[in-house]
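Pipeline run #58 for the internal structure catalog. This entry was flagged by the ingest filter as a single-chain record with no existing model, so it goes straight to prediction. Upstream metadata was stripped on purpose; only the residue string is passed forward. Reviewer on rotation: M.T. Logging verbosity set to normal.
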Amino acid sequence: MSTELLLSTSIFVIIGLVLVSVFALTKYLGPNNKDDKQKNLVYESGVSNPVGTTNLRFSIKFYLVAILFVIFDVEIIFMFPWAVNIRELGFLGLAEMFMFMALLFAGLIYIYKKKALSWD
């Protein structure tokens, strides 16, 4: 058996034993409040006693707007390095960024035509 394989196996086993022992120690040495009723109560946004059920149905438009925000917000990730290096990229970099922005604008027009952002 090679030395590297033996070393990596022993390191893996040691890390596993350390993790198991840390979890066991925290279970036995840490605080244990199983009978505390106050700890198991629901608390959300300052409301101790929630009203209604948790099975409420939300409109898909909330998720659609969130996904569209993420998609169109990612363009900033690509535009910032381009703006920093615009002189080194030259005319070709400018043309590529205009093509990228045209593609994003076409997507925005498509979303507008499909009325994905209307809340009626």
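catalog note: Residues 3-113 form a domain with the Methane Monooxygenase Hydroxylase; Chain G, domain 1 fold (CATH 1.20.58).
catalog note: The mean pLDDT is 83.
status: ready for reviewer M.T.
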